[in-house]
Amino acid sequence: MSPSEPLDSLQFGWEEWIGLPKLGVPAIKAKVDTGARTSALHAFDIETFGPASRPKVRFTLHPIPGRDDLVIPCSATIIDRRDVTSSNGESESRFVIETLMSVNGDRWPIEITLTNRHGMASRMLLGRQALKDHISIVATDRFLQPELSYDVYSTSKMRSEAPDRALRIAVLSREDNYSTRRLVEEGEKRGHTVEVVNTTRCYMAINAMAPEVHYDGKRLPRFDAVIPRIGASITPYGAAILRQFETIGTYCVNGSAGIVASRDKLHAHQIMARAKIGMPNTAFAASPRDTGNIIALVGTAPLIVKLLESTQGKGVVLAETKKAAESVIDAFRGLKANFLVQDFVKEAAGEDIRCLVIGGKVVASMKRTGAEGDFRSNLHRGGSAKSVRITKEERDTALRAARAFNLNMAGVDLLRAEKGPKVLEVNSSPGFEGIEGSTGKNIVGKLYDTIEARVRPAPIRKRKAN
Ligand SMILES: Nc1ncnc2c1ncn2[C@@H]1O[C@H](COP(=O)(O)OP(=O)(O)OP(=O)(O)O)[C@@H](O)[C@H]1O
Ligand SMILES: [Mg+2]
User: Which atom of ligand 1 is least distant from the CA of 315?
Assistant: First the structure.
């Protein structure tokens, strides 16, 4: 029913159950306060964000008195700021938002001021503006409208019925590249505020009571989610910043532990081996005396010798013969470089497959083919990419690999070997340009889908309300 249609008369007592559907509040008790014009809501952590031209406010609600474990995170556009004098005579400047109020199957827009004054005994006061003309007040009675129950907060329904709200998201990145730009663009399209935070310019006080992250002389706000895009060269520092966010309790799309483990090629191979994920035979040694043995461990030539710090295919060498492998290894040793030796998966023929995993699903996959005559398929080396259909086995392998590192988002690179998929690498900051370009899919949108689902309020355990 539209708000302008005439309604039958409603009777309100001095206290009624109502809902605030646009805030994700299915049931709350409100006291009628005809002495006030605008309604008031007892809100916590009130904080503004978003562009100055269209500022928003974020706050949390504890709709059940005495149950602070029930937290409903809300956001709304600010429509005004007003000085409100409360019943004890104190004046306070409050943000005003507009939202819907629902009663007995009917709903209409109301204005609400936000306050976290502890003096406010009730979670909500209904002012004259909310009490439309057709409502008559029976001041001696209460609950004249259908009674609701707090039990709804213990059901999963509350998560599924939570409305979309504007989130405040940080992208930890130092680069202004396609991926960073897409994260900002797609997030803003969905009404979120996305801030790019340069990881190396973050600093922090490490203490037990009040862990926080600082940036540009200020403490960073509470973010709903952090999307780490930490470059390989700053992994340790980036991971430390991310751990700080984890300590605060901020949802991080990928955790610091998974990022660090995936970046360390040896550690990554050990984790994958333990999870029984197929990968090329790999060996590693630290002492020059073992050159012959290390080759024997992997098998016979041709072999791949890979610098551990390699990216973009730069430190990946194919040694066609045992002799060639020995000289490459000796050369790397002379440079004090760390490397590993790997079985050459010949049948992959200069092609690898990038599976993009987001939220436990392979959302896209592409085949990368190396430039003519190159066994390396890196796009940076002139390779080309196109969308590819993967087998169930490849899908399962990619998912298991992402799960082994506890990564919510991962680019899993695998080779199509005779004996099934062999994982080369799990990338915790996969680029979006190649995969969105070759598959035509909105991958960043899928990432936001999982973030939005993840930051919804959680149902609480049922217990007698006070
Ligand atoms: N064992 C192997 N057998 C066959 N081809 C391989 C093997 N290892 C790597 N390649 C080819 O070389 C390319 C580059 O190797 P890899 O991805 O391991 O190193 P990188 O790209 O330099 O490092 P990173 O992917 O960690 O940034 C792969 O994409 C693949 O095409
Ligand atoms: Mg690679």
Answer: 22
